[in-house]
Design brief:
Helix content: 25-40%
Strand content: under 5%
Number of helices: 9
Radius of gyration: 21 Å
Largest sheet: none
Structural class: mainly alpha
Number of strands: 0
Shape: elongated
């Protein structure tokens, strides 16, 4: 019994230590929850509380964003990894636990989407290191300041429209994508507006139709 208790404490501590705001975090009460709207979602999940107040990074829950075309809906296992120990008696957490026990995903309502004929790759954007985004494109660039939202809403009603995407692709230098590129000489006209200051390597035009429609 002592070993089980010790293991639980260590597991909780390991997860909690990932969050810079954990030391000063305040546990929620039912009164706190009453002030939060669920919107169209099945559970009152507040990005403000998780990503804002407790500084949980986006990629801790959206684990596929850096390595896949899709960011992925967080599996219930990630939620329960913390909430087995944090606020387990809270009514909304109990709803999550029921999905966990039933081995069913939470039926979240999708807020962000692009047409089926558009191929948007999260990994290529999150890892797109260039002069403008040396650490990759931040989530907030497309999704807005989600860490301030209790209920997620589109930051820009034009999200996903061609002109909206091109507003970046026409102004931000090309990323290190190389799927269609061929080596070019330094004086090449194709590199005139896309050449990386570090030297001569391929940087395809991100306004090419096949960048998003392939």
């Amino acid at each position: 019994m002592a070993l089980l208790l010790c293991g639980a404490v260590l597991a909780c501590g390991a997860a909690w230590c990932l969050f810079p705001g954990a030391a000063s975090a305040q546990l929620l009460t039912e009164e706190d929850l009453a002030k939060i709207s669920a919107g169209s979602q099945p559970i009152k999940f507040s990005h403000k509380i998780h990503a804002g107040d407790n500084l949980i990074q986006c990629e801790y829950c959206h684990v596929y964003a850096r390595r896949s075309k899709v960011a992925g809906v967080p599996p219930v296992a990630i939620c329960m990894g913390c909430h087995r120990f944090v606020n387990p008696a809270l009514s909304e957490v109990q709803k999550v636990a029921k999905f966990w026990e039933a081995k069913e995903p939470i039926p979240w309502v999708k807020i962000y989407d692009v047409p089926d004929f558009v191929r948007f790759n999260h990994a290529q954007h999150v890892n797109a290191k260039n002069e403008v985004y040396p650490k990759g494109v931040p989530c907030q660039k497309c999704h807005g300041e989600v860490q301030t939202m209790n209920v997620v809403q589109k930051a820009d009603p034009d999200f996903g429209l061609m002109g909206w995407c091109l507003s970046c692709h026409l102004t931000v230098p090309g990323t290190l994508e190389q799927k269609r590129g061929t080596p070019e000489a330094l004086g090449s006209m194709r590199l005139l507006h896309a050449k990386h200051p570090a030297g001569n390597y391929v940087r395809p035009k991100l306004t090419d139709c096949l960048t998003c429609h392939y």
